[in-house]
Amino acid sequence: AKSYFEKIIQEGKTLKIFTVGSKGDDQLKRAYGSYIVEKINFKGLNKISYNEAEKVGNIIIKMFNESKFDICKIFYNQFKNVMTQIPQEQQIIPIESKNNEKKSPENYYEFEPEEDEILEDLLPRNISTQIFKALLENGASEQGSRMTAMDSATRNAGELVDKLTITYNRSRQAVITKELIEII
To answer: How far apart are CA 8 and CA 30, in angstroms?
Structure first.
C-alpha cells in the first residue's frame, strides 16, 4: 500500500486514506497522517459482521456521491495459510471488469425492473460485500499471525523452562556434593 501511496503522491494526484481498524491507522498515521480523511474502528466487537462492512461501504458511497474521489482501492491481507498472508490491492470503485464484452444480440437481456434500478441496488451491496470479504481475510490473517506467535512463544518458554531446570539441578547437586565433602 505504501508504494502505491508514494506513486499517487509523485504523480501529483490527491491521496485520501480511509482506515478501518486501529492497526492500519497506527501504521499509516506516522507517514501519511495528513492524508487520512476518515477512520473507523470496530474495537470492542467480538466478531465483525456484514453490518460493519455495510457501514464502511455506505461511507465510501457517500464520499463518492459527493465527488470526493475518483478511484477507490482497498488494501488487505489475503489469508493463504497460518504462516502466509498475501498483501492484496483491489479496486472497488469503479468496478474493474474482467471481461470486456460488448452488447450483442447473443448476450443482450431485458431487465425487469429496469437495469439502472437493479444496478443502483446491487452496486452498493457489491462494494459492501468486497469490504466484508477484505475484513474477513484480514481477520483470518490476524488470527493466523497470533497463532504462529503464540506457538513460537510457547516453544521458547518450554526451552527456557528446560534450561532453568538443568541449571537448578546442577546447582542443587553442587550444594549436595559440597555438604558431602564437608561431612567426609
So the answer is: 18
